[in-house]
Amino acid sequence: MAEAEEQGRKPSEEFTDESEEEDSEEEPKLKYERLSNGVTEILQKDAASCMTVHDKFLALGTHFGKVFLLDIQGNITQKFEISSVKINQISLDESGEHVGICSEDGKVQVFGLYTREGFHETFDCPVKVVALHPQFTRSNYKQFVTGGNKLLLYERNWLNRWKTVVLHEGEGTITNVQWRTNLIAWANNVGVKIYDISTKQRITNVLRDNVSLRPDMYPCSLCWKDDSTLIVGWGTSIKICIVKERNPTEMRDLPSRYVEIVSAFETEFFICGLAPLADQLVTLYFVKENAENMDEDFRARPRLDIIQSLPESCEEISSDALTVRNFQDNECRDYRLEHSEGESLFYIISPKDIVVAKERDQDDHIDWLLEKKKYEEALMAAEISFKNIKRHDIKKIGMSYINHLVKTGDYEGAARKCQKVLGKNMELWENEVYRFKTIGQLKAISQYLPRGDLRLRPAIYEMILHEFLKTDYEGFATLIREWPGELYNNMAIVQAVTDHLKKDPTNSTLLTTLAELYTYDQRYDKALEIYLRLRHKDVYQLIHKHNLFSSIEDKIVLLMDFDKEKAVDMLLDNEDKISIDRVVEELADKPEYLHVYLHKLFKRDHHKGQKYHERQIGLYAEYDRPNLLPFLRDSTHCPLEKALEICQQRNFVEETVFLLSRMGNCRRALQMIMEELANVDKAIDFAKEQDDAELWEDLISYSIDKPPFITGLLNNIGTHVDPILLIHRIKEGMEIPNLRDSLVKILQDYNLQILLREGCKKILVADSLSLLQKMHRTQMRGVRVDDENICESCHATILPSDITRNFSVVVFHCRHMFHKECLPSPGTIPGVQFCNICSAKKRGPGSGILDMKKLSLANQHIA
């Protein structure tokens, strides 16, 4: 149908109204092809007058009275010589086994396609229409209707004779008839009628709107959408009628069914045919010769539109103008539209041409997208519907898309699509790489090259790396970082980078990249050397990752130069690989670095670097005095004499005071605080810390002639020294700042001490009473005595075997139990008895004699 499409579509794009020009970018809904093969031969000698469509075949009637049965491709399967004049209509039943034919000379034939038995009759007037009962094949439905001046129903009775009934007459020529289930719809000069064959009632009359049009020139088009919906097209008017069941309460003398017109609207052109398409309508139009805005050469081209019906109007979905053969000579009555209910196939019949319209499939959709250069959408559509496409290949569409992007200069987009389109096809990948090289766009495709399981030849990757090395050092470095080292010949790239470094030996980008290449090649010592020279942040990661500690023993100073903190942390974390002695040896000439290292070592463990504590005293004094005093306090290994010497040389008073006190020379230390620091608060704190009466005496003696010192002492010594001692020694008449406040504070402190003592006493008394009560409650509790208890003296069971006789048991608060007879006599003090076991533990050896003496004395006293 290339010719029909070219002839039909291009004019439709050039000679349509403004709305069609605006919608030219919208995809058409239908595609067209000309029915050829046998049809071409037939129409060269004859002209088509009518056609009917079955799911399995086509039946074509001609102006010379012949009927041809055709397959779907248009090949002739059977030929019938019916008449010498025009065939007006052909009707088929649903099974496609029987056919009804009527012609302009009055002949009517109804026969089986496989048996010629049937009805053959010739009338004295032209028969315009014929329609078989849809179930004509079944014996009880042998019915058909014919129409000329009147509508006749033929029905074969049980005697195998045909009975005729006039269904309607008197309203002019019947121009169309359509039979669906039990409903027959026909059109005459007045309007459209519907007859219910089951109830033998005519149920409606839909009047013709435009009575000025000649019915023979602008015939009515009828089409059943389903068993109850009839579509009527006449002139420029379309009506959609629904046959409904009448409510039994409203029947009276009315038919059991009625018709409701649910949609009625006018169109711009004359209607030649109608067909349903889901919930839409396919309409064939004959364009008016005097229509406005139509070019003279194409004014009579038929149009096939898809419309959406609304209650009082319609919405155009698509519109195609068709250039059928000899369209300039055709009238509205020369066109017909037939459709196949099994498939969405629409046949446009004209005297010299038959065009088939089909719904566009996914392949057609992709064709249109490619034609409009919408490659992205075409590729997406192919991927989504890959199971349904037959004529297209996803890879070919993708390649077309890539070619288009390259032609338009979108090299980045083309390279990005390569990753998706080329997939795992190495040959296509290499071809694309060479094409990008030819157009000078290797950089665009570099980041999308496969680098996982699928890999191209190493030469491909090396070619791209060399290209970057010539023009873009940063891009080259990025590829080296991103690409696995196995993709290319590492030695070849190292040599290329080395050659470039000869021209620019200080280029940090090239040096860093060379270090990475050495790392891939496991030449870590060379990589480390470069990283250290560049002070690169990855140097520590490289050392850790590849365990290069043996390589850095002589590079510790370089590491410290780069980052002291990171270097020291790394060295301390790996003492087993680089010893403390080795580090100290390397840093001997860099005392500041040595101090940083030893200081962090001391913070981690006070004992690991103990042999260097003496050296650290001088390092702290030189580089970090704030941490000297904490070091002296925490270290137990530094020589105090050496430390004191250094501190005295540098006049470090606080550190000297600490060392003197630690060495036992507290009086000298206190003297330094008072004389050199002149800080009474520190002196008092020092005296409190030492808690030595002699130091307090020295402090008071030194302060007695210094009023500020006296004030400080009065404010602070109340809890350590009796303030009276100080007050008595103050010279009479000496002016002391804030003396009154100091004395008030002393009294307040004294009162506070008294209150604290009384409070503590009350708490002790309350606690004692509480505990005594608790002990009393505990001792007053009952004690369980059972068979498991034994006498602590005779070790027999505490309870006798015969509990009916009287027995006595003594239980002490300590939970020891005795038979009464097993206890010694309580003596002369009645009621006084002790647990032998607990008493022996408390008294110890030989205490029994003393107790006897006490008891003897007690007895004498009682006597």
UniProtKB/TrEMBL annotation:
Q: How does it sit in the membrane?
A: Peripheral membrane protein
Q: From the UniProt record, list the coiled-coil ranges.
A: none
Return the CHCR repeat spans: 568-712
Listed A to Z, the keywords are: Autophagy, Cytoplasm, Cytoplasmic vesicle, Endosome, Golgi apparatus, Lysosome, Membrane, Metal-binding, Protein transport, Transport, Zinc, Zinc-finger
Its localization reads: Cytoplasm, Cytosol; Early endosome membrane; Endosome membrane; Late endosome membrane
Look up the record and report any one GO term of the cellular component aspect: HOPS complex
- Record bears the keyword Protein transport: yes
The biased composition feature labelled Acidic residues covers 14-26
Gene Ontology BP term (one): macroautophagy
Q: Which residues form the RING-type domain?
A: 791-839
GO terms assigned for molecular function: zinc ion binding
Record-linked Pfam families: Beta-prop_Vps41, TPR_Vps41, zf-RING_Vps41
Free-text function comment from the UniProt entry: Plays a role in vesicle-mediated protein trafficking to lysosomal compartments including the endocytic membrane transport pathways.
Spell out the family assignment given in the record's similarity comment: Belongs to the VPS41 family.
Query: Can you say what this protein is called?
Result: Vacuolar protein sorting-associated protein 41 homolog
Whose protein is this, by species?
Neogobius melanostomus (round goby)
Q: What lineage, starting at the top, does this entry show? A: Eukaryota, Metazoa, Chordata, Craniata, Vertebrata
